[in-house]
Amino acid sequence: MAEKADPRIKFGILGCISIARLARAIASSTSATLHAIASQQQHSADEPAGFSPVEGVAAKKLYGSYEELLDDEEVDAVYVALPTSHHARWAAEAARRGKHVMVEKPPALDLEALTEIVEACEGSGVQFMDATMWLHHPRTVAMKAFLSDQEAFGEIKEMHTSVTFKVSPSFLKNDVRVKPDLDALGALGDAGWYCIGSILWAADYRLPRTVTALPGTVFNEAGVIMSCGASLQFEGSFVSTFQCSFLSSMTMDMVANGSKGSLRACDFVLPFDEARASYYTSSGAWFLEGLAGWAPSPVEHAVATDRQQVVFMVEEFSSLVKGIKRDGVKPDLKWPEISQKTQLVVDKVKLSIDRGGGRQCRNLIGLVLLVFFAIIVNFLFLL
Amino acid sequence: MAEKADPRIKFGILGCISIARLARAIASSTSATLHAIASQQQHSADEPAGFSPVEGVAAKKLYGSYEELLDDEEVDAVYVALPTSHHARWAAEAARRGKHVMVEKPPALDLEALTEIVEACEGSGVQFMDATMWLHHPRTVAMKAFLSDQEAFGEIKEMHTSVTFKVSPSFLKNDVRVKPDLDALGALGDAGWYCIGSILWAADYRLPRTVTALPGTVFNEAGVIMSCGASLQFEGSFVSTFQCSFLSSMTMDMVANGSKGSLRACDFVLPFDEARASYYTSSGAWFLEGLAGWAPSPVEHAVATDRQQVVFMVEEFSSLVKGIKRDGVKPDLKWPEISQKTQLVVDKVKLSIDRGGGRQCRNLIGLVLLVFFAIIVNFLFLL
Questions:
Q1: Given A105, A179, A322, A350, the catalytic residue
Q2: Which domains does chain A have, with CATH numbers?
Q3: Could you read off the pLDDT of B173-226 as tens digits, one per residue?
Q4: Interface pTM (ipTM) of the complex?
Q5: Half-sphere exposure (CA, 13 Å, Cβ side) for A282?
Q6: Which pLDDT score, from 0 to 100, does residue B371 have?
Q7: Alpha-carbon span A150 to A132, nearest angstrom
Q8: Within 13 Å, how many C-alpha atoms sit on residue A15's CB side?
């Protein structure tokens, strides 16, 4: 049997949006193979229809429609690299046809659409995972161990994350992430996904009590978010903030502060160096005698890796798929849960932005008082 | 004449609250001398009344009342180290008697009280300065030069600062900063003063358009702020956040992000090392080929110093006083302006906290609709 001959998980990719990294990761993974690519995009004259060339990567099959790829019984798992507005339809369809599903982040435009995908996966008993790579990096595991250390870090109190990058004029005009019909969440769904995800990760996936957008959201002409932020407040006096943007210099900062120690990373979404990722910890810092300074200063910890984080992700996903396919293991529900909770908070930030969140309530209080006064005058008339 | 024999500025210190550092700085400065200390505090049995001993520091005169020190015509300048609630009275009184005034931070409980001090200084033609030391460190000058570099940093877009330290149970019970009658601003006036000051410093002392407290303010039993945060939004889509606390591990983080570069420091309020202060810059960061990482990572810049920042502050203040006293130069109005703007924003954060700032306006909107409905029903009755 062919399956026994090649034990690797056969991936099919739907769409051509930034698939290069994942396609290469699949190619370089020992547990997965790129079986097929399907594209329905409009192509320029120098690109063959139905195929988006990825340098150094070859798929066994190329399809001109997503339907055809999903009809291919050899495909074990699909990676949905379509604009976000198309995720729900195609990821759910893939799941209904028994394909395991990995979806580019943000996995959906809102929780309702994501739930459609997740329920389709549950119904078919297939694995769901969104393609948030940094969660699979060994550094992330090491940082989490520090955050969980009651002696060194204690209880989490404050956190700030910032994921920003200054996009090109061409991106601002053409990228799917600036188009209301394709990826209406803009910077919130893209860079903000990492910010919110990192805060929930640090909070052990507890959900925040309040989600309040910061003032100063920037929209493009079509109303898509180019820059925004929010505060997330949790039980136990843990308060976090984040800022995400397409309009400022590249940052991927995370600072988490506990009752006893602090954690910092400047590149948490993607390490500066694919072979070596650093994070910084400090515990029990206090003033030196005579206030001559304070100590300890943050200590660097470097995690060496032999693979890019995207490869770790593909291998983790493939391993789960293998377990389900070969050993009858149940899908790991941790991954859809992480996605759904992150998406829920994205929804709440969006709602708070739409409602003008973070605005002072002062004017409304004035209005309420005025109206009460009017009622009293009214009643006096009645008497 | 005695004045010619000793050209140093003669300092008098009012009060004994954390005067050790400043007393030593005056002693080690070549431009100032500690002439007198006045204390009216209640003392424990093992402390002589009217004198708080500062190891290794000797004042020429010790007074048992502030009045006596202010009557001493030899005193050029006073450092007001009283609880914040007493600043306005004594700093203004010192100014009216022709003494130059340096006030411990926060300089006052609110802008009104600070303005009383500043106006008394203006009326007497004396120098005013609050004792925010980090503004006088050479590193601060170097960091500002980077922020002002249009090529390397560009226009400021986001900033987050965090000043926190976990105080002892004894501090939580006894320190002036937890007492509503002494320093009702608590962590906001102490740690938050640095956060707000650093954001205004980065914003070239423009004032924010909106000031909104973050949810999750923590108060002690007496209603004093132990932990809080806010967002400050400026013209030009610059949005900043800060968090200050007496309840979490020590941090003094500043991250400022511009359109072209970013600036970081982990110890901006007080360098880890008094001889060497670092900050980190990065400009033009972008993804590497194949998304294998990104570059450049932040570059460390170290500023070596031969003095503590408190000495730089005392020398800057003494130099201004000398200019006024000997050369008829006008007081430098930059310093009261910085203090007043910082205090104004402290006031606004406090107001936003008192008003439940950061809360969603949703419930109020519902209330307004309800009340309008009631009015309409009312009018129907009238008809």
A1: A105
A2: 2-134+310-329 (3.40.50.720), 135-309+345-354 (3.30.360.10)
A3: 988 888 888 888 999 999 999 999 999 999 999 999 999 999 999 999 999 999
A4: 0.89
A5: 23
A6: 64
A7: 27
A8: 18
Phi and psi at B358, nearest 5°, equal 85, -15
Is A371 near chain B, with CB under 8 Å?
yes
Chain A positions in Cβ-Cβ contact with residue B371 (cut-off 8 Å)? 368, 371-372, 375
List chain B residues with CB under 8 Å of A210. Answer: 215-216, 358-360
- Pairing relationship of beta strands B77-80 and B9-14 according to DSSP bridges: parallel
Q: Compute the half-sphere exposure of residue B274: CA atoms within 13 Å on the CB side of its CA.
A: 17
Cβ atoms within 10 Å of B69's Cβ, excluding its own: 25
Q: Do A157 and B357 touch (CB under 8 A)?
A: no
Going A348 to A354 to A360 to A363, the CA torsion angle's sign is negative
What does the block give as tokens for B198? 């650093």
Q: Are A296 and A283 in contact (CB under 8 A)?
A: yes
Please check the confidence at residue A37 and state whether its pLDDT lies above 50: yes
Rounded CA-CA distance A87/B256 in Å is 35
In the residue annotation, B4 being an active-site residue is answered as: no
Query: How many residues are there in chain A?
Result: 383
CB A249 within 8 A of CB B259: yes
Interface of B with A in 36-95 (CB under 8 A): none
Q: Which of A303, A264, A30 is nearest to A141 (CA)?
A: A303
